[in-house]
Amino acid sequence: MLDLRTIIFQKLSPICPRCYYGQATQGSAYPYVVFSFPSNGRAYKEQVQREVEIAIYDAPKSGYNVATAIDNLADEITRVLDYKTGAQGSTSVWFKFEQRTELPFPDGTTMWGRLLRFTAHTYKE
């Protein structure tokens, strides 16, 4: 799974340099992206399908339309991953977009978020 994490970092870092696996570092500047694998995946012959969740976080700034900015970032991540391939080490992968939703936040929170779900179809050589 380390190869898959590396592939995702390589694809997301040019779009958003603050990209984290699992959890962002405390005090991270906005915007930032956190990706995770909510399950171990399903094996089919030579392929493993894993869910990939990509959470995008941003916060309002003076003169900054956070809704437009975060939606643009979500659009760009979807464009870069959906039906695209990658390879690292002995792993090759292609991604399929599944869902886009808003992330709920507690009352009084000014942070905004979007959650993207993909299926990663991984193959070992």
Number of helices: 2
Radius of gyration, in angstroms, nearest whole number: 15 Å
Mean pLDDT: 90
How many β-strand stretches? 7
Helix/strand-derived class?
alpha+beta
Are there runs of 5+ residues with pLDDT below 50, and where? none
**Percentage of β-strand residues:** 35-45%
Describe the protein.
- With 125 residues, this protein is an alpha+beta fold.
- The protein has helices at residues 2-12, 66-81, and strands at residues 19-21, 32-36, 42-44, 47-58, 85-88, 91-102, 112-124.
- The longest helix has 16 residues, at 66-81.
- The protein starts with a helix and ends with a strand.
Sequence-ordered SSE layout with sheet pairings:
Layout (H helix, E strand, L loop, with lengths): L1 H11 L6 E3 L10 E5 L5 E3 L2 E12 L7 H16 L3 E4 L2 E12 L9 E13 L1
Parallel strand pairs: 1-2
Antiparallel strand pairs: 2-4, 3-4, 4-7, 5-6, 6-7
